[in-house]
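Sharing a chain and its predicted structure for anyone who wants a worked example. Both blocks are below, sequence first, tokens second.
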Amino acid sequence: MNLTPIAKAIFRRDSARIDAWKDLTPEIQIRQLRWLLFKGVETEYGQRYGFEKMLRSEDPRKEFAEAVPMVGYEDLRADIMRMAAGHEDVLWPGKCLNFAQSSGTSGGRSKLIPVTRDSLRVNHYAGGSDVVGQYLRCFPESRMFSGKGLILGGSFDTQIKVSNPKVKIGDLSATLIDDINPLANLFRIPSKKIALMKDWHSKLDLIAGSAIKENITNLSGVPSWMLRVILRALDMAGVNSTQEIWPGLEVFFHGGISFEPYREEYARLTAPGKMNYFETYNASEGFFATQASRDNDGMLLLIDRGIFYEFMPIDNPTPSPLTAEQLEAGKVYEMIISSCNGLWRYRLGDTVEVTDVNPVKLRVAGRTKSFINAFGEELMENNAERAMAAACSATGAQISNYTAGPVYAHGRKKGRHQWLIEFDQPPADITTFREVLDSELKNLNSDYAAKRFDGIFLDAPEIIPVEAGTFDTWLNQQGNHKLGGQRKIPRLRNDRSILDSILGK
């Protein structure tokens, strides 16, 4: 039974609201900020910074920026841990019983991101609905609801202990699956029991085994982990292409990490010309953006889903960040959010490149701390992802994970970049892989090209293949025990701390 026509009718009205966003960004964002301030006025944070006074203003953005400091996670850690211990009305009204464990800060400790009832209702689930609505608008020929979705999720497995027994800590995806509307379970696999299992190795076989028995039309998850599930399902079914087990498969909703290094492998495993890829920007801290066109000219910033956005220019930081209507296309910004999970003027750590301004569309450029500039080369994460994809395509390689950092000049030896790469499929020739990676980085980044010119300032990159499981082992040693969820190895680092730790130096 194909229920897609009914789904289109349900999603059409909500997704069409975006057509009215042109020229209304300031009005919509002011409304979001006023709602956030109203919800937070009686909280400890609201009392601390005078939210009530701001609410008297027709446009509270100026007073908000002047009174409330921009913060990182460490600035909020004590308040968040009190929330996890059961304290009410700290950063957001009421008690918060769900927390997403996210990647550790520079101090090496994991972050607990509050997942409030409002953030689930107004932001995360609503953002997921926006993704489906935009996809159905972009692909009206879709038959997505003629089958089921294979949706990967993490678990509530955590090493963090809190005194409140009612509090659940784990991947954001675990909370989303645990709290999902029961009707949605009619259209998704695996079962909640399998999806929330802690042992990823056992879960992998159960997910793949259940998937090959279903008519799967859509996939949702992180590209690296979804690829493992697909490969396991193909092995179990004894076939070489997803079309042989899921002839109706039409779309992969992906996010979390760049898709580019995995694009060639997905193209090899899926039906030519029948597979769509739809990008999302969803993190523990919020659901921020979704692809909204067939050619993905940038993801649409969701400006009415319980988040007020500010943007700090990367090339020229200012005392006061810009608001959404002040952005310029082609510029890169650090994103700062105030959200219905109680994160106020929170420095997310992500950088975005704006591709359009009315309405705002963007691409994820990388992390504020994920870059290498040890030699003036200003290498950014998006440069690395695209160059890595080109090197894989040219040599038939497939990667599981990688990280890179500098090797400093010593004596008469020039500096260079060192890349630790865990290959699923090694390149046919490692030298060619290195040369393509280097060449593509030069094409993408003029500062890198200048430093590499004739090898005067910077030597060619060094590639070090590492054994399978190396990065999982390292992440576990850092106290990050999550598999299959949002665990991430930092792609680039401006020092050797990660490289030396992995290499045992």
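Comments welcome. Residues 217 and 249 are 4 Å apart (CA to CA).
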